[in-house]
Amino acid sequence: MPDRRYASWMDRLRVALCQLDTVVGDVGGNAERVLSGLARAEEEGADLVAFPELALTGYPPEDLLLKPAFLADNLAALSEVAGRTSVCAAVVGFVDVVGTEDLAEAAAGAAGAGVRSREAAVRGAPRLLRNAVAVCAGGRVAGVYHKRLLPNYGVFDEERWFGPGTGPLGLYTVGGVEVGVSICEDLWFAEGPVGALGRGGARVVVNVNASPYAVGRLGERLTLLRRRVAEAGCPVAYVNQVGGQDELVFDGGSLVMGAGGEVLAGGAQFVQAMVVADLELPPAPRAPSLASTPVSGPRPRREPLAPPPLPEPLSEEAEVYGALVLGTRDYLRKNGFTDAVVGLSGGIDSSLVALVAADALGPEHVHGLSMPSRYSSEGSRTDAEALAAALGIDLTAVPIEAAHRALGGLVAGALGAEPPGLTDENLQSRIRGVLLMAVSNAKGWIVLTTGNKSELATGYSTLYGDSAGGFAVIKDVPKTLVYRLCRYRNDVAGRALVPEGVLTKAPSAELRPGQRDDQSLPPYEVLDPVLDALVARDESIAEVVHAGFPAEVVERVARLVDSAEYKRRQSPPGIRISAKAFGKDRRMPITNRYLDRSYVPPVPSAPAGGDRDGGPGE
Amino acid sequence: MPDRRYASWMDRLRVALCQLDTVVGDVGGNAERVLSGLARAEEEGADLVAFPELALTGYPPEDLLLKPAFLADNLAALSEVAGRTSVCAAVVGFVDVVGTEDLAEAAAGAAGAGVRSREAAVRGAPRLLRNAVAVCAGGRVAGVYHKRLLPNYGVFDEERWFGPGTGPLGLYTVGGVEVGVSICEDLWFAEGPVGALGRGGARVVVNVNASPYAVGRLGERLTLLRRRVAEAGCPVAYVNQVGGQDELVFDGGSLVMGAGGEVLAGGAQFVQAMVVADLELPPAPRAPSLASTPVSGPRPRREPLAPPPLPEPLSEEAEVYGALVLGTRDYLRKNGFTDAVVGLSGGIDSSLVALVAADALGPEHVHGLSMPSRYSSEGSRTDAEALAAALGIDLTAVPIEAAHRALGGLVAGALGAEPPGLTDENLQSRIRGVLLMAVSNAKGWIVLTTGNKSELATGYSTLYGDSAGGFAVIKDVPKTLVYRLCRYRNDVAGRALVPEGVLTKAPSAELRPGQRDDQSLPPYEVLDPVLDALVARDESIAEVVHAGFPAEVVERVARLVDSAEYKRRQSPPGIRISAKAFGKDRRMPITNRYLDRSYVPPVPSAPAGGDRDGGPGE
After folding, report:
1. Is B12 helix (H, G, I), strand (E, B) or coil?
2. Is the pLDDT of residue B618 over 60?
3. What is the percent of chain A where pLDDT is above 90?
4. What is the mean pLDDT of residues A41-53?
5. What average pLDDT does the segment A134-146 reach?
6. Which residues of A, range 88-117, sit inside 8 Å of B by Cβ?
7. I want to staple A213 with a disulfide (CB 3.0 to 4.6 A). Which of A72, A251, B49, B295 is the partner?
8. CB–CB of B617 and A470 under 8 A?
9. Which residues of chain B have a CB within 8 Å of the CB of A403?
10. B121 within 8 A of B158, measured Cβ to Cβ
11. Contact present, B78 and B56 (Cβ < 8 Å)
């Protein structure tokens, strides 16, 4: 219980939010990261330091959670961290194992096959595992909270592994103040625990997160936080993970929101940071109705901290660009790569990927490969050279004509005839894929794939050709946004890193004479909003037509999206920047005979093909 | 309520189980399939016909469930089917939408992004959608049952879309007999609805399924059915879907189990079938405690059916081979392919794939491509020819030397040096991938990929090379089982379809002189059980070592499995035959720094590389 002698004073709680970039599976390393944050929070005189959701395992650990040895490492790391706490209370995310002392039983149940283990599997993981935080101080774990609301939609599968927290809520008395703790999704719903903690006597609610970035997500979080602060009637301290993990980028943006909905302190997006703020808390109007576990007493009164400056809000382009840079840097760093190779065609997509790579890795770690064919324009070659020069990356030119002729001869031998046009187009693209992979093999550089979301959606790419590589930097960036990001980066640089010609010429794959994208696809200004309606919002053809788009375009795009599912399934991972990327967000069958018949055209439209790859799945 | 005048007689119920091969998304086609089964059941004089789980949408429909137009089509199809029922009651799987009349609201909630729709998303699909069966007769829907136990593990994500059935259980009076209905997972647990329906007065429980095949699954189902029959105290009629859907193969194996646990009737595995059986039901000992909805009255007494012959149980090899044939045939048929091309190396893997393809499609629809390099042995060429001749498939030979030289020159140009050994090995494999894809593009034949599970697990393959293609027939078949399946098929044929030399020579990729797999990998007799322990059972290194495998082998294999995750992510879909295939069964992060330190070697072991591809992700 708090010391009521000070009930007429404002209590002060110094809160530190440690916006960490953890690594999935690196339990020992994550514990070191947490301990280093804890040491800094102690130096700052914080009463409480909060780390992101599942800080010790990294987020999301996925099916590592079915390995008993992994669960055991995570519990050992929590003991280690708790043992090193002193005055400052640490709120540390970990995986709790409940209802058994036997971790092998826990995970064997969760993992196995067969009747016995299948029965166990269903109950196994969700019955035994909890997405948890421990509140630690004075060398021990004072209490544990289990996440109550588990996201199981979009990219999230938490009900696969975790059961929800149940039973009565409780508070923790930290620095003489009743604090409630909660985890991520717990914040997103009105009937969730945040309001209940506030009504039950919490004077601050801490919410720890691993909330992935998407365009506009920051604004949503602020809206939600304002609602929860109003329900709880007290400040909320929100800490979010930062960094890339496979397709997800976590943007940080941790903040403390006061009881009036004002942002008191905040961390920048896309960087590791520690936000420290003094909360001046009015006396509780009445005794808390929820029981409170004593964790730590008040520190001596100190000079208050000056309110820290708030980070500047980023433009949409700056935010997306920041996500791409961090996502690329972390994928390479966490997987042991220092360098990347990019095929530079002189087009806008490969230009943006080279920009991002140079910013993420440093230009000396980015290697351009120009692979002109008989159809490549002189302008494309000089644009690639100008870009490489402006970025300061090296560029090697390898004309593919000799391989094109040799492989064309082999294909003719296999077919007993000259390869038809589309086959020959794909052949050129695949020769480039093979070259890039050979460089990757020999040098140990990862291939950065240059396809954008508009292409991925419509299948306008060659499987194992331009879609080949280790990481697809802009796979969730629609073509129209690719242009905006290049212009944005040029503006920041104050000079044309991307040559003006690249920004203004008609997009072309240059795989046959005079080819232009708009011979196969609608103009991108039309295609991108149609894709957004069909894919991100799951609208029917009739709805998109009703919104004013030409029926034959919408129908054709819908068919292209469906028939390209098999190609997307083989595409490399890449950075999610939207609320619905291709991948875990959108789980469509490949074998799928659903035909949206919502729009009935006045006369039947002819089938059309915008596909550069007539291969499998069609 | 049943007519109690006959309470001293045995009641007879004629049950038909319609083991259908539905198509995901093909709502209209599935309705036709159901109606055609219904017509046949009426002809057979059945009182009740049961169709598989979600028969109208196909299973699993995945995120098609977020499209309002799709949900509406499914409801319209149910009305159509119900309207065509007469005396025979039909138990028809469909997606029910509850709590709203507005399908657009339902699915917009389930699909969208943003604060409002994210709140709706969580509640949206699971709040509004149910995995359901309708009991229909006399032109109407008499009642609807909602699945109560939802699988959310392994390949299943049902909690992403569905909420569980709740509220009181009920019975349906069909042909004068109280019948309980239940769906798939409802059968798997002792505390589930099957026992409760029996205790509540059901005299038969119908269980409709979409239960994917795995080695040994049939035996498990029988074990479970015996337990549930004992709990329910009445017969259970089990109907299962048949056919391939992307990576899953459903094996059918529908059956009726009597109250004593005896199998009264059964459908063969891997074929469409209708099982019809007369159940002689003793009078109910007491009035049912559950309410029963009248559906249909008793038919006039007829001559009883002779008990149908039970299908012969299949050997493990016959079962797996049957799954591969059906999975391949259905993937091609449902995706509009008639023909396939296979790269024939003269090795065991491509031999098995050609066998399966010829059985699935007919030999005239299978096309072999032999692509020898400077390192290919004469034996391999003649083995490929002998196989093609034995199967009656065509074979085109295209030596890759010219392309190998030309591309080798380009790679040397890009590197400024001759390509190192591994790069040159991958180059040959990728040239073959490019050739196969070119044939696919030009001819419209799908490329069948020939990699096995042991390779996929350890990354012993070349990305975009031998792993390229549209469908990976044996990706879940370990190498030792590949041998067994070839011998099995030779035995069935009574002659050496696969030449004896292929079965006895040492496995080799033939990408350098004198290469053998066992220079890079442990012998397959050791590798396969180690993989099974590490991957399927999630055992720690220490546990596998404790089971008697050499520590340095187990450690090395564990590292190979982890580091090959990025390659597996880009592999084509293929048939799941085990309870834990790579894919939806095993959701591992690519970026994963977890190191199993459970086994501490006496002296540190040197790192080893069994990887043919030094590319991205390493």
Report:
1. strand
2. no
3. 81
4. 97
5. 97
6. 107-108, 110-115
7. A251
8. yes
9. 403, 406-407, 409-410
10. no
11. yes
Residue B258 CB partners (closer than 8 Å, separation 6+): B229, B235, B264, B279
Q: What's the pLDDT tens digit per position in B151-170?
A: 999 999 999 999 999 989 99
Tell whether the model's pLDDT for residue B605 goes beyond 70: no
* Structure tokens given for B407: 């591309």
Min distance A201 CA to chain B CA atoms (Å): 26
Output the pTM of the full model.
Answer: 0.94
Considering the candidates A18, A88, A136, A184, report the single residue annotated as catalytic: A184
Dihedrals phi, psi of B412, to nearest 5 degrees:
-60, -40
A305 at B interface, C-beta within 8 A = no
Measured CA to CA, the distance from residue A569 to residue B618 in angstroms comes to 21
pLDDT band at B599 (very low <50, low <70, confident <90, very high): confident
Select from B220, B430, B471 the Cβ nearest to the Cβ of A115. B220
pLDDT of residue B1: 44
The mean predicted confidence, pLDDT, of chain A is 91
In chain A, the residue whose alpha carbon lies closest to the alpha carbon of B156 is: A160
Sheet holding A255-257, edge to edge: A263-266, A255-257, A236-240, A204-209, A177-183, A171-174, A292-294
> Where do runs of H (alpha helix) occur along A300-400?
316-334, 348-361, 378-391
Nearest chain B residue (CA) to A163: B152
Give pLDDT tens digits for B182-210. Answer: 999 999 888 899 999 999 999 999 999 99
What value of ipTM does the predicted structure carry? Answer: 0.92
Query: One-letter amino acid identity for A529?
Result: P
Inter-helix orientation angle B421-443/B401-415, to 10°: 130
pLDDT of residue A114: 35
Give yes or no for residue B121 having a pLDDT over 50.
no
CA distance B302 to chain A (A): 40
Judge contact between A440 and A470, C-beta under 8 A: yes
User: Closest Cα to residue B56, out of B89, B88, B33?
Assistant: B33
- Over the stretch B531-548, which tens digit does the pLDDT of each residue have? 999 999 889 999 999 999
Supply B260's token pair: 């004593």
Selected residue of A73, A593, A595, A613 to mutate for chain B interface (largest B Cβ count, 10 A): A593
CA separation for the pair B553, A168 (Å, rounded):
49
The closest alpha carbon to B151, from B19, B213, B263, B60, belongs to B60
CB contact under 8 A, A125 and B153: yes
Taking a contact as any Cβ pair under 8 Å apart, which residues of chain B between 111 and 150 contact chain A? Answer: 111-115, 118-119, 121-122, 125-126, 149
Q: Residue A552 — φ and ψ, nearest 5°? A: -65, -30
DSSP state string for B151-209: --STT--GGGT-PPP-S---EEEETTEEEEEEEGGGGS-TTSHHHHHHHTT-SEEEEEE
Q: Is residue A584 annotated as part of the catalytic site, yes or no?
A: no
What percent helix, strand, coil does chain B show, rounded to 5? Answer: 40, 20, 40
DSSP letters for A484-533: HHHHHHHHHHTS-SS-HHHHHSPP---SSTT--GGGTS--HHHHHHHHII
Alpha-carbon separation of residue B281 from B6, B7, B11, B203 (angstroms): 11, 10, 5, 7
CA–CA dist A615, A566 (Å, integer): 10
Distances (CA, A) of B459 to A286, A582, B138: 63, 25, 58
Please report where in the chains the tokens 């199967």 appear, as a residue: B391
Looking at residue B65, the DSSP 8-state letter turns out to be: G
Cα atoms found within 13 Å of the Cα of residue B210, Cβ hemisphere only = 31
What is the DSSP secondary-structure string of A391-415? HT-EEEE---HHHHHHHHHHHHHHH
Known catalytic residues of B?
53, 147, 184
Strands annotated E in A138-281 = 140-146, 171-174, 177-183, 204-209, 236-240, 242-245, 248-251, 255-257, 263-266, 273-281
Q: Do A441 and B426 touch (CB under 8 A)?
A: yes
